[in-house]
Amino acid sequence: RIIDNHHPLSASFDLIGYAWMSPSHEIFSLPTAFTIHFGDFFDLIISDQTSVVGLTDSELERIPTMIYKKTCTNIKDDDDDKCAICLSEYITDEKLKRLRCKHYFHSECIDPWLKTSTRCPICRNEQTS
Q1: What ranges do the domains of the chain cover?
Q2: Which one of 24, 86, 105, 109 has the minimum C-beta count within 10 Å?
Q3: Cα(126)–Cα(120) distance, rounded to whole angstroms?
Q4: Are 125 and 119 in contact (CB under 8 A)?
Q5: Residue 4 Cα distances to 1, 8, 17, 57, 91, angstroms
Q6: pLDDT for 80
Q7: Banded pLDDT at 101 (limits 50, 70, 90)
Q8: Locate the RING-type domain: which residues (predicted)?
Q9: 66 CB-side CA count, 13 A
Q10: How far apart are alpha carbons 49 and 72 in whole angstroms?
Q11: Phi, psi torsion values for 48, nearest 5 degrees
Q12: Domain 57-116: which topology?
């Protein structure tokens, strides 16, 4: 697109033309205004993110637990009878953690997950207050 006889990429073409038609000592003495420091750019992105990653130990301790009992209603072969993280079937009288979204997991499976994420691994609902 041309606006006022000026092409938007003409600056880069002028620089290339300058390099092509100039003596080599002038090419290497070009201003360093075009230097890009990606490390600085990525540091800015990372520093802009929040430092909260997952739940604290005290928050994990406050998650309600329940004792698993196999009932006639959950005898059918569905995913309610196994942990979605380790895929092991729950055993009667096993202690499970119940998230706010009503999904159940082994403590040893969900605790490491919630230390790195505040969301349920099944429905992605937030587990923080």
Answers
A1: 10-48, 57-116
A2: 24
A3: 7
A4: yes
A5: 10, 10, 21, 63, 76
A6: 78
A7: very high
A8: 83-124
A9: 12
A10: 47
A11: -80, -15
A12: Herpes Virus-1 (3.30.40)
For residue 70, what are the contacts with CB-CB under 8 A and spacing of at least 6? 81, 90, 92
- The whole-model pTM stands at 0.55
Where residue 4 falls among pLDDT bands split at 50, 70, 90? low
For tokens 């006889």, the residue is 5
Using an 8 Å Cβ cutoff, are 55 and 114 in contact? Answer: yes
- CA separation for the pair 71, 92 (Å, rounded): 10
Contact predicate 98/104, CB 8 Å: yes
pLDDT at 79 over 70: no
Cα torsion 45, 47, 48, 53 to 10°: value is 110
Count how many residues are written for the chain. 129
